[in-house]
Design a protein that fits this description.
By secondary structure, the protein is of the alpha/beta class. The chain has a domain of about 190 residues: Lysozyme-like, CATH 3.40.80. It is about 25% helix and about 10% strand. It contains 7 helices and 10 strands. A 6-stranded mixed beta sheet has the order 3-6-5-7-4-8, sandwiched between helices. A two-stranded antiparallel sheet has the order 1-2. The two termini are about 30 Å apart. About 30% of the residues are buried.
Length: about 325
Amino acid sequence: MRPLPDRRPTGPTGPTTWAEDAPTALIFTAPPPAPPPVAQRGALPSALGALGLGLALLGALPALPAAPPALPLSAPAAAPAALPIENDAAQRALRAAVLQPPIIERPVLWNAERERLAMLYFERHKGWPPGQDPKRALRMEPRVIVQHWTAGPTARSAYNTFRAPAQVRRRDRSESNALNLCSHFVVDRDGSIYRLMPEDRMGRHTIGLNHLAIGVENVGDGKRWPLTQAQVEANAALVRWLAAAYPLTHLIAHAEYRWLESHPYFVETDPGFRTGRIDPGPEFMGALRAAVADLGLQAPTRPERPHRRQRLSGRPSPHG
């Protein structure tokens, strides 16, 4: 598979980088040697006289007792053996700390209104009973990573789409569907990774899987703003870190979400609540899967009988 083009910003001689000027080296010189001491007249006879007096005094003192016998040498006591880490969460946290890529924090507005709308959404689409504590109910143990594209040119435009608690435009006017879309991460075209919300908090980005899926939005689309090699590399690093931190089993494209409808992961109480998706494209997913093949994350199997045709789109929609 050929690599995707590298469209990172470049300077006159190559990729633009940040660098600081090297500090000027300081020159250290050795101090001049001290002059030799000048021998004073009469110093040698005086020293000999003092030595004789000291020997005479030592002869007059009683003999010192013999030194106690030396104790036998032995090896120092061995340090106690380190206890094995049996807690899987502790092991994951340790591995994740090593693998975490650089991440820029850009949190969306998460307040009481967004919590309320999220609870209404999940009560409708997951069949949750009302009255649960949102701070507990909206936490999840991720099992799936879903790759998207933003269908826009910049990370800022994606952030502005997701920031508010409620959708501005939506076909379904009911309050239970007012919760705004939001993935967990945005990966810019130069490979910069932005985190919009904690990865163990439920967002709204993929029908049927929001209760256990981490969403990753890639800035661009398949035509005007093709995804870049820098995004493939950044996503590979992000997936490796997330797989170290959480018990993930699947890595899927947004276009593949309906292929999991028969899987126990998929939960959607409204059988008509579906959309057709094409993002982020087979070329991008093929390159990403090849980069993280050693992790063993599963891809969904295309069903033998295709689902009822839906409107295909790569843009965010009210049905997420």
